[in-house]
Amino acid sequence: MPRTAIGRSERLLEELRRWVEHETPTTDPRAVNRLLDVAEGELCAAGATIERIPGRDGYGDTLIARTPGGRGRPVVVAGHLDTVWDHGTLARSMPFRVEGERAYGPGIFDMKAGSFLAFHAVREILRQKTPTRAPVVLLLTPDEEVGSPTSRAIIEREARGACAVLIPEPAVGPEGACVTARKGVGRFEMRVRGRSAHSGGNWQDGRSAVVALARRILEIHALVDLDRGVTTNVAPIRGGTRPNVIAPEAACEIDLRVATAEDGERLERLILGMAGSPEEGIEIAVSGGMNRPPFAETPAILALWETARALAAAEGYDLPKTFRGGGSDGNFTAALGVPTLDGLGCPGAGAHAPDEHIRWPDLAPRGATLCALLETLGD
C-alpha cells in the first residue's frame, strides 16, 4: 500500500466529474488548455516544478510536472487530456451520470479517469510530502487521440532518461488487465486521379478512379495475416460525383496494425509502393506511414508487471496482463527500450462509444496501486 493517502473512491469521483464535464475535444486547443490550467494550478500549488510547452499545429499545450524528491533516473507517468467527443456531447446525449457502480460520461474511460488518477497521485505525493525512491515526472498531453503528432517528441525526450514509464490508459476487460504489449499502428491516405467522361455517351474515354481504387483496396485487404498479427482496414472511402459521370477522383484512408517492427517496415513499403500509374489515365498517390511502433513485451516489462501485480494484491485485487491491438503513447516509450507498463487506469468499457463508463468504486484501489508504483520504483 502507498504511504500517500489517496482517499475514497467517492471523493475521487466527485473531482473526476469536473474533469469529465469539462469537454476537451482534440480539435479545440483552448478547451484542452483550460483543463490543463486547472491541473497546472493544483500541481504548482502543491510544489511541482512546471514546464508548459505551447501547442502548435492546432493542438493544445503539453504540461510537464516534476517532483523535487528522489534520486537517480525518474519515473515518468503520461496521460492525455483530449477526447474524441465534440462539444455539446454532454448536453445532447452523454450527460455525466452514476448508475450503480458505473459512472458515465464522454471520455471518462478513455482516458480522463486514468489521467486524473495520475495527476491526483502526484499532487498528493507532493501535498503530503511523501518520499519517493526516484523523482516523478507527470506528462499531460493534448493530442493522443489523433496519434500524438505534437507530443510524441516530448514523450520520447522524457522517457529516454527514465527508469520506467507508466501509462494510465484504461484497464482492459472485465478483469481490469494492464497492458504489457501493443501492436504498432500505421496510417495512410491513398488518392486516385482518373479521367471523367459521360457514362453513357462516351464511356470508353473515361478512366474510373473509383474502379482503380477498388482494385487497390482488394490488394490492401489481401495483406491481412492473422497468424502474424497483421490487419488492415480501409475507411472512409470517397469517390465520384454523379452516377452518370465516370469518376475522376477517389480516395481512402488505411489503417495498418502489426505485431513486429519488421512487419511494419515491410508493409509500409508495400502500401507506399502502390503509388504510381497502373494503367493509362490513372495516377495513384499514397502518403503516410507507421505512426506508432510496436510495443513488445520484454523481461524488464514483465518484471515491472510483477511489481505492479504485487502492489495491486495489497489493495485487494488481481492485476492480470494482456496484449492489445490498439496503440497508445506507451508504444513510443517501449520502442525506446524503456520498461513501460500500460493500462493502469480504471476498469470500465465503451471507449469512443455512447455507453462509455468506468467502474467508479475501483478508482481508489487503482489510484493506490499507481501511487505505490510512483513511490517505490527507481534504480
From TrEMBL:
Residues 180-272 form the Peptidase M20 dimerisation domain. The active site is at 82, 144 (proton acceptor). InterPro entries: Bact_exopeptidase_dim_dom (IPR036264), Pept_M20_glutamate_carboxypep (IPR017150), Peptidase_M20 (IPR002933), Peptidase_M20_dimer (IPR011650), Peptidase_M20A (IPR050072). This is Carboxypeptidase. It comes from Caldovatus sediminis. It comes from the Bacteria. CDD domains: M20_CPDG2. The keyword Metal-binding applies. Gene3D superfamilies: 3.30.70.360, Zn peptidases. The keyword Transmembrane does not apply. Keywords: Carboxypeptidase, Hydrolase, Metal-binding, Protease. GO terms for molecular function: carboxypeptidase activity; metal ion binding.
